[in-house]
Write a structure and sequence with these properties.
Elements lengths: L15 H28 L8 H28 L1 H5 L10 H34 L4 H4 L2 H18 L2 H4 L1 E5 L5 E5 L4 H40 L8 H40 L8 H26 L5 H8 L1 H37 L7
Antiparallel strand pairs: 1-2
Membrane topology: Multi-pass membrane protein
Pfam families: 7tm_1
Protein name: G-protein coupled receptors family 1 profile domain-containing protein
């Protein structure tokens, strides 16, 4: 959710909350990109990519990388980097064409990051609660169609953001990528709807389906104390369920605080448009309230950004098979390096031996 109307230039006395945002956000972005790339490679491995759940997690990793590079990083360049350098330098991001394009991709990536978690939840719900229908509803082809459909819907639904936004001069003359002044209220309404769609609705869906999943797992555990045939695929699917539960808890915990503070702050700003109807005391109280919300927003925004980098750690903690594939990936890499070095060493020894051999000696 974009923050219009304010000149985001750095203040002379940045708050501790602002410093927290400035120093922690680049770490989140770095670990997030690396973690999502590694997760992408693991889920694309031979044993994992054939499962429909992996398709959703592959798509989620890609959307999270896009969010980190085109949403988290630009926001840090706008709100955090000036605190380090003393001046605002990402002028390229404020150019009208770049501004509209980046905003458009930001909204698409954030929409997809939220709803891929929802689709992953639904896939696990069907797999756990309706196992007999899983093969018909939860195959790789169906997952690919759902992912493609989500991309199409996101691309069409997020068009409003670049249309209602652009680069406009602030009070001090600098250009700022924000909502069009003539459509700020309409943009606020659509931004609020967008926030509900990527936060509140997914929260409800994820919570409801997780309740059914947990209930089903408890019932199944009570009924089935007998020895069952356990396959590698069934183990992976069970671990996907545990991964989902961890992701769901983190999704709610990391998203809702930022959404609540953003809505309250934006509503306070909207009230100040009627400043001619306010007394000086009321106006000052509103200004102080917005300043306090700005500080809170720095903290909740940073926590929210963690949503795009935490999945790799959740996979590693809750997924034994994920750790196995990850270890196999690095061991295979080390083995390949050893084979290459051994081959080079063997070739070198052969050349040395042939040079020293009497049969090949010229002198």
């Amino acid at each position: 959710m974009h923050q219009p109307l304010l000149d985001d230039s750095t203040t002379n006395t940045p708050s501790p909350e602002h410093r927290f945002f400035t120093y922690v956000t680049p770490v989140i972005a770095l670990f997030g990109v690396v973690g999502n790339v590694v997760s992408l490679v693991v889920f694309l491995s031979k044993n994992m990519r054939k499962l429909s759940a992996s398709m959703y997690l592959i798509a989620l990793a890609i959307s999270d990388i896009m969010s980190l590079l085109l949403y988290v990083l630009p926001e840090w360049l706008k709100h955090g980097e000036p605190l380090l350098s003393g001046y605002s330098w990402p002028l390229l991001l404020q150019q009208n064409g770049v501004c509209k394009s980046v905003l458009y991709i930001q909204y698409i990536a954030r929409f997809l990051s939220s709803w891929f978690v929802v689709f992953f939840t639904i896939e696990r719900f069907i797999g756990v609660c309706f196992p007999l229908r899983r093969k018909n509803l939860c195959d790789s082809r169906s997952a690919a169609r759902v992912i493609l459909g989500a991309v199409v819907v996101a691309s069409a639904g997020c068009v409003f953001k670049p249309v209602l936004s652009g680069s406009f001069p602030t009070i001090n003359g600098a250009m700022l990528c924000t909502s069009d002044k003539d459509h700020q209220y309409f943009s606020f309404i659509l931004d609020s709807i967008f926030g509900v769609i990527i936060t509140f609705i997914p929260f409800i869906i994820i919570t409801v389906f997780n309740v059914f999943i947990i209930r089903r797992l408890v019932v199944r555990n009570k009924r089935s104390r007998k020895i069952r045939v356990v396959t590698t695929e069934s183990i992976i699917r069970l671990e996907f369920t545990f991964i989902l539960l961890a992701m769901s808890i983190c999704f709610v915990a990391l998203n809702l605080p930022y959404f609540a503070v953003w809505c309250k702050r934006y509503w306070k700003i909207r009230q100040m448009f009627n400043m001619h109807m306010m007394s000086p005391t009321t106006l000052q109280n509103h200004a102080n309230s917005i300043s306090d919300l700005d500080d809170t927003l720095h903290v909740t925004r940073t926590i929210f950004y963690t949503n795009f980098c935490i999945n790799f750690f959740l996979y590693s903690v809750t997924g034994a098979y994920f750790r196995k594939e990850l270890k196999h990936l690095f061991c295979k890499h080390d083995k390949n390096i050893r084979l290459i070095n051994a081959h080079r060493c063997s070739a070198y020894n052969t050349r040395v031996h042939s040079m020293a051999s009497p049969q090949t000696s010229i002198l």
